[in-house]
Design a protein that fits this description.
138 residues, alpha+beta, 4 helices, 7 strands, 19% strand, globular
Length: 138
């Protein structure tokens, strides 16, 4: 989207008997903990994001994804956003990359972009950057 969402909300309608936790990468914390050399490499840079770039990859095979209509495809055109975004209300910086949607870093050769993104993805899912939500019946 040209204007990204501020966040996501989930509401469990039905809970499994066991398991079913949801994990979120805390991208504010990921930025706060990002090593200096990676901060320097991404600050001021932008990345391209595409909802459909990896839509049908086998990596995501467990998620059934229907064929999109031309109208739906028009609503998810590739967009470019800063890699580091600042929250409009609290001023905190956060990484804004996602393995499922970020395709490349604008202005970098493909191999450098791929390597830098891989480092950002790996950092963002370190255990210390993950929030695990354990669902409870209400």
């Amino acid at each position: 989207k040209e204007l990204p969402s501020l966040g996501s909300m989930l509401h469990a309608q039905e809970l499994p008997a066991e398991g079913g936790d949801t994990l979120f990468a805390d991208m504010h914390k990921a930025w706060d903990q990002l090593p200096g050399h990676l901060r320097a490499a991404v600050e001021g840079r932008s990345a391209a994001h595409s909802y459909t770039a990896r839509y049908s990859e086998t990596k995501f095979e467990g998620n059934w994804r229907p064929t999109m209509t031309p109208e739906q495809l028009a609503q998810v055109a590739q967009v470019v956003h800063p890699i580091v975004r600042t929250h409009p209300e609290n001023g905190r910086k956060a990484l804004f990359v996602s393995e499922g949607f970020t395709t490349h870093i604008v202005g970098l050769p493909e191999d450098e972009s791929r390597d830098l993104l891989a480092q950002l993805y790996a950092h963002s899912v370190l255990p210390e950057n993950i929030y695990r939500h354990q669902w409870q019946p209400h």
